[in-house]
Write a structure and sequence with these properties.
259 residues; mainly beta; 17-stranded mixed sheet; 21 strands
C-alpha cells in the first residue's frame, strides 16, 4: 500500500501541473460535465507501473470469514476496523475485490496477504471540483465480532473503533500509525503506545489505568481511580476526569493535562 500511495501522490502532482494547461484545451464546460479518471496499476512483481484512462470503478464486494481467536485481536493491514463485542463471532470484510480477497484471519490475527501476483491499483480523478486520489486499500473495511477479546494490538495502519466493550480489563498496544476509538466500560485499562497512532477512550468508563507512552501517539481518556503514567516519548495525555490518585514519570517531551 505504501508504494501505491507514493505512486498516486506523484501521479496526482503531475496531473495537477499538466492539467492546468489541459483544462483550457478541454474547455471548462466539458470538464464540468465529465470526470476524467486514470488508473495506476503496479505489478506485484515490481515489473513496472501502468497508467491508463479508466472507466467505471468496480463495485465493492463483501465476504465473511470465520473468527478463530480467543481474547487477543491483532491488526496488521490498511483498513478501517470495527470491533463489536457479541456472541455471534465472525469477520466481515468489504471493499474492492482485489483487497478483500487478500484478507486472512488466523489465531486472532487479521492481516493482508502479501501476494506477489497481486496488482495494486490506485485512482486519480480529475473533475470540476479538483483532483482526488485514492487506492483500493483505502476502501477496505473490516468488522470483527467476538465475545471476549481483551487484548488489542494495532501493528500497521489500521484505524480501530471498539464499540460496546464490557470486560473487567482492556489492554491496548499500538506500534503502528493507526488511530483507536473506544466506547464501553472496564475496570482496568492498560495502554502501551510505541507508534504514532492516537487513542480516544473518553467514552470508555475506566476505574484504574496504567499507561506507557514511548512513541508520538496521544491518549485521551478519563479514569477515576488509581492511574500510573510513564511518558518517555513525545505523546501527550489528556485526562478528561480527575483520578483519585495519579502517579507520573515524565522523561520525554510529552505532557499530562488534567481536565
Amino acid at each position: 500500500m505504501i508504494r501505491n500511495l507514493v505512486i498516486i501522490t506523484i501521479t496526482g502532482l503531475v496531473l495537477a501541473l499538466v492539467g492546468i494547461g489541459g483544462a483550457f484545451a478541454l474547455g471548462g464546460s466539458d470538464l464540468a460535465r465529465h470526470d476524467f479518471t486514470w488508473v495506476v496499476t503496479e505489478d506485484g512483481h515490481n515489473d513496472g507501473v501502468r497508467f491508463q484512462r479508466g472507466g467505471a470503478i468496480p463495485a465493492d464486494i463483501s465476504k465473511t470469514l470465520a473468527w478463530d481467536g480467543d481474547d487477543r485481536l491483532v491488526l496488521d493491514l490498511p483498513a478501517d476496523v470495527i470491533y463489536v463485542q457479541g456472541a455471534q463471532a465472525g469477520v466481515v470484510v468489504s471493499g474492492p475485490a482485489s483487497a478483500v480477497n487478500r484478507v486472512r484471519v488466523s489465531n486472532g490475527r487479521v492481516v493482508m496477504d502479501d501476494d506477489a501476483d497481486n496488482q495494486e491499483r490506485g485512482y486519480v480523478r480529475w473533475s470540476a471540483s479538483g483532483i482526488h486520489a485514492w487506492s483500493d486499500d483505502d476502501r477496505l473495511k473490516v468488522t470483527v465480532t467476538a465475545p471476549s477479546v481483551r487484548r488489542f494490538e494495532v501493528v500497521g495502519s489500521s484505524d480501530l473503533s471498539i464499540r460496546g466493550y464490557d470486560q473487567p480489563n482492556l489492554a491496548l498496544n499500538i506500534s503502528g500509525s493507526g488511530d483507536v476509538e473506544i466506547e464501553g466500560v472496564t475496570k482496568t485499562f492498560t495502554a502501551e503506545v510505541t507508534g504514532s497512532g492516537d487513542t480516544d477512550a473518553d467514552r470508555l468508563d475506566i476505574t484504574d489505568a496504567t499507561v506507557d507512552l514511548s512513541g508520538s501517539g496521544d491518549l485521551r481518556f478519563g479514569p477515576t481511580g488509581e492511574v500510573q503514567v510513564d511518558i518517555s516519548g513525545s505523546g501527550d495525555i489528556d485526562l478528561t476526569r480527575r483520578p483519585a490518585q495519579l502517579r507520573q514519570e515524565l522523561s520525554g517531551s510529552g505532557d499530562v493535562e488534567e481536565g
